[in-house]
Design a protein that fits this description.
By secondary structure, the protein is of the alpha/beta class. The protein is built from 12 helices and 14 strands. Helix 1 links the parallel strand 1 (about 1-10) and strand 2. The structure holds 3-isopropylmalic acid (IPM) and magnesium ion. The site of 3-isopropylmalic acid (IPM) has 6 residues, from helix 4.
Length: about 350
């Protein structure tokens, strides 16, 4: 029997509730498809700050690096908003991404037919939407130096640096082109090359890589236009290639095509052969934490992505995705997805339905 070492990071807010669902779902598929998961929980984010004073304790990072895959729920808690940036929960996640060298963030956006009514957009606009955001994750303005805040006698100023090296752009472009090869063979690269030097280099290097991929159709859009096109005509997109900040913004926007940000999983990957990090795109939703109201689907879909991409347990991944489809087809919804005629379930109960259908 195959044995996989998994690190589970519940984090903050609704993290614990959706982690409980994911653990049970994983337990069910591993039994059904005959593999073993050795799951160890570790601290990250606000809960790690509370226990250790550090949003990413050393033990957590080393356990993640030694694992076969990492499944993270969500981090972030308003009670730490006043701490210096380095000490905030978000820094834990950023350090985990850079510490594990996870430069490629893959965020698939696929509309479930049963949820056409749940989106704020018209059904005919979002029907059949199936795109992937490929977001660079360890560079750009998130990590660029110099950065800081300076105070003089009469003024105050803060700054960050948006910077990319040619190598960083080329390796994330390659990921996008490789994914497009297995899909509809279209890459749309997003930048702000009409204004930013860093974007001009981005565009030049993406063009350079595209020469190797002759059968892939490459287009470019400025980020403001891309934001508009995503709600005007999202079906035009297959693979969207972005830098760190633009991808952060556009993937939240793209999430709403599916009806709720509670539906989107993601994978963050490094070099071939190194463990990946799998996490929902949504945050820790402190306002509904502990109320059994969270949508556990993005977390369950992240577990499915972990099985497929991280552990090559394809049958298990498919079983989770099919089960979620069936549960939605039967009209079961969490509060964020509710529409007329459907049955509202809590987080736990939604988890039970998903497990029942596996
Ligand atoms: C995301 C989140 C993170 C990001 C935050 C929590 C640091 O918004 O994964 O999209 O900005 O990358
Ligand atoms: Mg985000």
């Amino acid at each position: 029997m195959k044995n996989h070492q998994i690190v589970l990071l519940p984090g903050d807010g609704i993290g614990q509730e959706i982690t409980t669902v994911a653990s049970k779902v994983l337990d069910r598929v591993s039994k059904k498809f005959n593999f073993r998961l050795e799951i160890k929980e570790h601290l990250i984010g606000g809960s790690a700050i509370q226990e250790t004073g550090d949003p990413l304790p050393k033990e957590t990072l080393s356990a993640c690096k030694e694992s076969d895959a990492v499944l993270l729920a969500a981090i972030g808690s308003p009670e730490f908003d006043n701490l210096p940036r380095e000490k905030r929960p978000e820094s834990g996640l950023l350090k985990l991404r850079s510490g594990m060298h996870l430069f490629a963030n893959i965020r698939p956006v696929k509309v479930f037919p049963a949820l056409l009514e749940a989106s704020t957009l018209k059904p005919e606009i979002i029907e059949d939407v199936d795109l992937v955001v490929v977001r660079e994750l360890t560079g750009g303005v998130y990590f660029g130096k110099p950065k800081g805040r300076i105070k003089s006698e009469d003024s105050e100023r803060a700054f960050n640096t948006m910077t990319y090296s040619a190598e960083e752009i080329k390796r994330i472009s390659q990921v996008a082109f490789e994914i497009a090869k297995e899909r509809r063979k279209k890459v749309c690269s997003v930048d702000k090359a009409n204004v930013l030097d860093v974007s001009q280099l981005w565009r030049d290097k993406v063009e350079e890589i595209s020469v190797i991929y002759k059968d892939i159709n490459l287009s470019h859009q400025y980020v403001d236009n891309a934001a508009m096109q995503l709600i005007r005509n999202p079906k035009q997109f297959d693979v969207l290639l972005t830098g760190n900040l633009f991808g952060d913004i556009l993937s939240d926007e793209a999430a709403m095509l599916t009806g709720s940000i509670g539906m989107l999983p993601s994978a963050s990957l490094g070099k071939e052969g190194t463990p990946g990090l799998f996490e929902p795109v949504h945050g820790s939703a402190p306002d509904i934490a502990g109320l059994n109201m969270a949508n556990p689907i993005a977390m369950a879909l992240s577990a499915a992505m972990m099985l497929r991409i991280g552990l090559k347990e394809h049958a298990g991944a498919e079983a989770i995705e099919n089960s979620i489809n069936t549960v939605l087809d039967k009209g079961f919804r969490t509060a964020d997805l509710m529409s007329k005629g459907c049955t509202e379930l809590g987080c736990r109960e939604m988890g039970e339905r998903i497990i029942e259908e596996i």
